[in-house]
Specification:
CATH class: Alpha Beta
Helix content: 40-55%
Structural class: alpha/beta
Strand content: 15-25%
Radius of gyration: 20 Å
Number of helices: 11
CATH topology: Rossmann fold
Length: 323
């Protein structure tokens, strides 16, 4: 029997690379990838040429412009424009070329700032978004609605998965544009190496966040992509067809900082700059729907942070060798 051809868009990113690793491990499909130099997904003409050239059976849409609070607040136009371009090109081409199955990866930032906890899928579009990442969130909401609209009009199986905060190998460790876990790993590591007496963290440390290892997300993505259509339709509706994915527990940022400092081996003082924004006070997802399909996360936070720090050290060592 012919093996399906699976296109992973964004395979060099943290999420895309994890999906590729999991697909390679399962070895039941042929994986198609393209670097940004080979295919600019913001270019509609190039995207059309690519899809006309390849007979693709499934797509994992992990390509996106992503970043932390500072990056989202500094480059709002880039975040909404580039993400809309990528989504429209890939999802539009998928429909145009008759590809039946696509999985769109979004983010829990799609939900209202003051959503009840834990956040259920039906809370989407029930209130204002968190202002610092509103443009990115709107792009992701548009992606969900584009998938739903094509399902309704063309009977596609385009599904959307909204993960909580992610971490793991392949993350972005830029000191200003990264998310909270890679930012803290980088800063505590540098402080340890430089023997700094303290590390200052943005905000009060009181917000709570849920963290999912990217390898667990990859397994969830493949699980959801391959759910039988009857089962998928039993837990979604035509106009509310996205699923949350997370771990079902959260942690305060100050507790997370202490945990990462311990793993890194930083013994100095942890201080908080309360003049800087906290973001959403709490953001934990309801997992009732995805849990009903039999999926559950396997990697606990401490274990995941240990392996992520080892991956970060390996990245640093390779970087030094190349200099």
């Amino acid at each position: 029997m012919k093996r399906p051809i699976v296109f992973v868009a964004g395979h060099r990113g943290m999420v895309g690379s994890a999906i590729v690793r999991e697909l390679e491990y399962r070895n039941d499909c042929d994986i198609l990838t393209k670097t940004r130099d080979q295919l600019n997904l913001c270019d509609q003409s190039a995207s059309l040429d690519f899809f006309s050239e390849h007979k693709i059976d499934q797509i994992y849409l992990a390509a996106a412009k992503v970043g932390g609070i500072l990056a989202n607040d500094t480059y709002p136009a880039d975040f909404i424009f580039e993400n809309l371009q990528i989504q429209n090109n890939i999802i539009g081409c998928a429909n145009q070329f008759g590809i039946e199955k696509l999985l769109f990866l979004g983010s829990s930032c799609i939900y209202p700032y003051a959503a009840p906890q834990p956040i259920k899928e039906e809370y989407l579009l029930t209130g204002p978004l968190e202002k610092t990442n509103e443009p990115y969130a709107i792009a992701k909401i548009a992606g969900i609605k584009l998938c739903e609209s094509l399902n309704r009009q063309y009977n596609r199986q385009y599904r959307s998965l909204m993960p909580t905060n992610l971490y793991g190998p392949g993350d972005n460790y830029h000191p200003e544009n990264s998310h909270v876990i890679p930012a803290l790993l980088h800063r505590f590591h540098e402080a340890k190496i430089q023997n700094f007496p303290s590390v200052t963290i943005w905000g009060t440390g009181t917000p709570r966040r849920e963290f999912l290892h990217v390898d667990d997300l990859a397994k969830a993505a493949i699980h959801v992509q391959n759910l039988p259509q009857k089962e998928w339709l039993s837990i979604t509706t035509p106009m509310s067809s996205h699923l949350n994915v997370g771990v079902g527990t959260d942690i305060r940022i100050d507790e997370l900082a202490k945990l990462i400092a311990n793993i890194v081996g930083f013994t100095g003082k942890i201080e908080f700059n309360t003049n800087m924004p906290d973001g959403t006070p709490r953001k934990m997802l309801s997992l009732d729907k995805i849990a009903s399909t039999g999926w559950t996360p396997m990697i606990n936070l401490r274990e995941g942070l240990h392996s992520t720090y080892k991956a970060y050290q390996h990245t640093l060592a390779n970087s030094e060798l190349q200099q």
